Amino acid sequence: MDEYEGTHETSGSNTFTWAARTPGSLGNSIGIFVTDAGADQILALTAPSTGNEHEFVADEAVTATSGAAGKVFKYSIVLSIDTIVGSFSPGVATTINIGGSEESVTVLSYDAPNKKLEIALPGGGVTGILGDGQVITQGTNTAAINTTISRRLFVGLNNGSIEFAASDSVEDTNSTAVVATSVVDEYTEREYLPGLKWINVAGRPTTTNWASNAGGSNDELHVLVLDIDGKITGTTGAVLERFIGLSKASDAKTTIGETNYYATVIKQRSQYIYWGSHETQVFAATSTAADGNWGLTASSRYFNRLRSASGTTSYPTNAITLNSTNNATYYYRLTSGADYATGAGQYTVTNTDLVSAYELGEDPESQVVDFILTGPSGADDAAAIAKITSLVNIAEERRDCMLFVSPRRGNIVGVSSATTATDNIIDFFNQLPSSSYVAFDSGYKYIYDKYNDVYRYVPCNGDVAGLCLQTTEVAEPWFSPAGFQRGNLRNAIKLAFTPTKSQRDRLYGARVNPIVSFPGQGVVLYGDKTALGFASAFDRINVRRLFLTLERVISGAAKSQLFEQNDESQRSLFLNIVEPYLRDVQGRRGVTDFLVKCDTDNNPPEAVDRGEFYAEIFVKPTRTINYITLTFVATRTGVAFTEVAS
Questions:
Q1: Is the dihedral of CA 256, 257, 261, 265 positive or negative?
Q2: In the CATH hierarchy, which top-level class contains the domain 351-543?
């Protein structure tokens, strides 16, 4: 985000129109569809009776005696074809034999399943009239026209003009009058994917209230973000995001006063993409095209509309084959995303880069953090220790969150001897510092990666953090996340290493919480120690999380005392906030007893004179059961249990 805002957001020379928000090859699955007002109407025209085909040149004025007026958005002819050999490529010059005359035209779209070919006539028109049986040739590809020929004039109305109507007569470039047999709203036919129409997504984008009030028009547009090949969601063509009724005007606001400028809205709300530059392949709204450029203010601005030019980089060929044939839908397929790797053309991430990224969250006042996950530890012990130690320092500096650490992959994955794996884990964690804000685990679990269709080992530190969160949801944060009640890991096919009882005892003595696979009972977190290196109340996860919860709540209450009167009444007010809260925690089994001291004893006159406020909070945390001893005794039939038990 920082790089985007500092480098790309206000740049007038970005080489991209849209970009993925995050790196990696998964961004290559993102497709972006954009549409605006486009053409207003489609006039179905009668066939010429004699002479040549009609010639309507893009952007030329077109009027009717009814008073309707506009400009030619495009003129296309849709041919029904048969006897097809090969296929046809949009944007490529094609030859049609009309009455023995070879005429060059351009293919706009090719709908193979329905045997429809859309063509545009060249400047200067063609000699003759299209008819049944005439042959279309593009390289070695050929087809014959059958009897169905549809001549369609796409019109963009002038601002304030009435609409064209059926039976209106219009003149082509050669001043030949042509009658419209029918007129339809172009938007009702507009598709973003084959068979998927924009009208089913939202109404036609026209002019926002903001632009209308400022004297502008045609500033509205819609944006769809799709999972084109299904690699993001698992469903091909799934809609990831939709942004409806955005504006091309840089000063645009919604009816409730929020920004509505499309580049800014995408930056603020999209999880997948950034905007890079305005589209330049457009239908000019005024005689001076620059007056309608996107990104200008709305005042008296008639914004240019989207109009693709086939074969250009703005409207890729594969977009046309997706049947975006009405030329007011722009399709962008993101490319060049690369996953983490080494070698030419790829990028590398060092431990220094990772630590720098983690350090963005080291300030507790600007970033609220509950858990820090180490993820994979590193390529070797030295790199892993350096990375984890830096994260321990962040947790110790913040003192309001916990860090979760798994062993290095190479120490257990692929290690056949459980004894060797146990030694590797203990040796690895012995090199890490002592801290009650850290929890170690022993596990790597085997899972199915549905996004890449592979099975892989992943570290379990994320699972342990997830168990802590789940414990907060189903119980309280001061309950232990371990054991069979709340400690079952999800989505684990197997473990890379599951310790035996003796190995668990060794690990637990070395501050490591074993993760164990029990037959019929699942994979379980079987310990709740922190990484503290000596005996203390804080060597248990539940106690540390109890204090994190108490400190966060009570610190918030303490902040409300700032700049208030430093007297007995204010101290009593503080006690009246804290004590009921601690009584509630006690009732919820978090503490067995507590004391809050905030009086003249710890707030002497000299402290008051310095503007200082002191409160001491003493709590007795509830401890968890870590060891269970069961003794079974067989007694004689006549023995009284009261005598035995005593």
A1: negative
A2: alpha beta
Write out the residue limits of the CATH 3.40.50.11780 domain(s) in the chain. 351-543
With a cut of 50, say whether residue 311 has pLDDT above it.
no
Q: How far is CA 161 from CA 71, 109, 156, 183, 518, in A?
A: 11, 30, 10, 15, 77
Contact status, residue 25 vs residue 321, Cβ threshold 8 Å = no
d(CA 612, CA 309): 71
Express each pLDDT in 348-376 by its tens digit: 777 788 888 888 888 888 888 999 999 88
pLDDT in tens, 487-525: 999 999 999 999 999 999 999 999 999 999 999 899 999
Buried/exposed code over 325-358 (b: 16+ C-beta within 10 A; e: otherwise): bbbbbbbbbbeebeeeeeeeeeeeeebeebbeeb
Asked if 185 contacts 165 with a C-beta cutoff of 8 angstroms, the reply is no
- For residues 631 and 643, give the distance between their C-alpha atoms in angstroms, rounded to a whole number: 16
**Residue in this structure with the two tokens 């409207």, named with its chain if needed:** 315
379: which strand partners?
none
Task: Quick: pLDDT tens for 334-344.
Answer: 888 877 655 54
Q: Exposure of 259 by Cβ count < 10 A (0-12 exposed, 13-18 middle, 19+ buried)?
A: middle
Q: Which residues pair with 332 in a beta bridge?
A: 32
CA distance 536 to 183: 83
pLDDT, tens digit (0-9, with 9 covering 90-100), for 68-78? 999 999 898 99
| pLDDT per residue as tens digits for the range 138-171 | 888 888 888 789 999 999 998 889 999 999 999 9
Residues 6+ apart with CB under 8 A from 291: 285, 301, 302
Query: What three-state secondary structure class fits 286?
Result: coil
Name all contacts of 317-321 with Cβ < 8 Å and 24+ positions apart.
317/89, 317/90, 317/91, 320/90, 320/91, 320/108, 320/109, 320/110, 321/90, 321/109, 321/110
- Closest alpha carbon to 507 in 446, 414, 428: 428
- The helix/strand/coil state of 405 is strand
Region 445-452: what's the mean pLDDT? 88
* Mean pLDDT of the 422-446 span: 94
Residue 107: which pLDDT band, with cuts at 50, 70 and 90? confident
Q: What backbone torsions phi and psi does residue 267 show, to the nearest 5 degrees?
A: -65, -40
Residues 6+ apart with CB under 8 A from 369: 361, 398, 400, 401
Tokens matching residue 264: 């800014």
